[in-house]
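Go through this chain.

——
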Amino acid sequence: MPNLASESRIAERFAACLSHKLGRQYTVSPGGDRPDFIMQPEGWLEVTDIYLRNEQAKFLNSPREKRFGSSGPLDETAHRLIARLDDKLGKESYQPVYASRGKGTLLLTSQDCFFDAVNLAQVHQVLASFRPTNDRGFFQTAYFEYQLPGEDRVYEVIYPRRA
């Protein structure tokens, strides 16, 4: 749903954060369909946006959409996150890039403009019991990027779970 320029900004922001956190310089370049980006000095990156629901994605990414309501269960974003994580972990289409470049990094980004501390608590609660249905082992790490109102962006490792 986001355009390539938007995904590139997200990937570059993540590479900068990773560089700072790990003390190595990471860069990203377009990778095509699978993966979204090639990371240097090693690896690859797949970026997936998480919205409250499909209507929110249309509202935020289409100039024709004029309205979007925010009613629904509090844990809806958390369940969408888990569903996308499980889907990505099981995709066979990552096999070629895995064979050529090794394990990749999955970045799930919160694009829910209503995301707040209550939603984050729901995410943590749902993640605590998450068990993938078909992890093919193509990803080294999955991160969740979010930003709470008035705070900096956070990149939280959500898979594999840390003990």
